[in-house]
Amino acid sequence: MTPWKEPTASCVSSSRSTLGATKERPMKNLGKELRRLRGLLARARTVRIVTHLSPDADGISACLALRLALVELGKTADVLVVDPIPGNCWFLPGCDRIVQSRSHLPPPDLIFSLDAGEPGLLAPAYDPEQDKTIPLVNVDHHLTNTLFGTVNLVDPEAGASCELLYTVIGRLGADITAEIATCLLAGLVSDTQAFRTANTTPHTLRVAADLMQRGAPLKTVVAEILESKPLAWFRLMGLVFADLRSMGPLVWAEVTPSMRLATGARPEDVDGIANLLSTVREAEVTVLFKVSDDGTVKVSVRTKGRVNAADLCMPFGGGGHARAAGCTLVGPSPAASKDRFLSAAKEALEKAGETVGAATERAARTGV
């Protein structure tokens, strides 16, 4: 296997942006953070790896890649994911080794949190009270990450958490095998939509090229991650886009429990709708509301530059990236929750100089 070497124009350049004025960006101190990580790893025999609730392919892929690397380094490592595993991840090496209950695992000496911006997104796989004495390594690429770890390896300009993890695994001295490379490439393909989104950088492409040289099959990864949808997904799309709504540059849609029931769609079948919605030409901000059975509403936001998606979601307890973010709304009713968020989106657009008119009954009737 080709020895690992950081691609040129490394992601730890001093020109990287910073987050907040009170905390130094850990990626500007990668050496110090990795020294602390190496110390924790040297003392750890058993490692637990977790990711955020409702995991996506970047989170799952990162967990699987890290488990393989830690096992290679002589550690006992387990991936704990309580929520259902997305169907597009089952082809990944080691996916069948994921554990879905804490009761089946020994107490860890060290915990890795991957692709999560704050610890509340990790429950119940990680419990801040129950696990407070266990060192926590926070590896993430979200702009709104709260730096909650004992060690924080966070770079908001990485195209995916898997891009950042590529550097971490290499610096730890693990061999990036074809299996690890496949997992890491899957995370890159997922979060950049096959290298098409604004978070794709030259470094992202250099990492992807190295992963392919190490045996990751790009064609297979793209097909499995992005191009393999169940029939229920298409039936759900029909219902969602038949009820598309708009207010000028603000376009939104919703997925309700009745829609899922009528089409036989699973919760994971909602994945990808927000990205597809963002392709509406006339839209500056697109919003997908996913209504749960208990009335809570998960929100996925995509923007095209005039509005910061993370800033829009943060007052609602969410976060993410400048162009893609999310939050969860809890209110007296789903309708009230959606109205509250749409008012905030409209206000953000108007502050950005956009003209937002009255809502259409259905965007489908207006040609949007």
Number of domains: 2
Taken from the alpha-carbon principal axes, the silhouette is globular
Secondary-structure-based class equals: alpha/beta
Q: State the low-pLDDT regions, or none.
A: 9-26, 363-368
Q: What is the C-level CATH assignment of the largest domain?
A: Alpha Beta
Quaternary state reads single chain
Question: What is Rg?
Answer: 20 Å
Instruction: Enter the CATH topology name of the largest domain.
Output: inorganic pyrophosphatase (n-terminal core)
Q: Provide the residue-averaged pLDDT.
A: 90
Helix tally equals: 12
Second CATH tier, the architecture of the largest domain: Alpha-Beta Complex
Strand content: 15-25%
> What is the CATH superfamily classification of the largest domain?
inorganic pyrophosphatase (n-terminal core)
Pattern of helices and strands:
HEHEEEEHHHHHEEHHEEHEEHH
Concise synopsis of the structure shown:
This protein has 368 residues and is α/β, with parallel strands linked by helices.
Please describe what this structure looks like.
This protein is α/β, with parallel strands linked by helices and 368 residues long. The chain has 2 domains: 26-226, inorganic pyrophosphatase (n-terminal core); 231-366, Diaminopimelate Epimerase, Chain A, domain 1 (Roll), CATH 3.10.310. 35% of the residues lie in helices and 15% in strands. The chain contains 12 helices and 11 strands. The chain has helices at residues 30-43, 57-72, 161-172, 178-192, 202-213, 218-226, 231-242, 257-263, 273-277, 309-313, 334-351, 363-366; strands spanning 46-51, 76-80, 110-114, 136-140, 151-154, 245-247, 250-255, 285-291, 297-303, 319-320, 324-329. Helix 4 runs antiparallel to helix 5 (202-213). The relative contact order is 0.11.
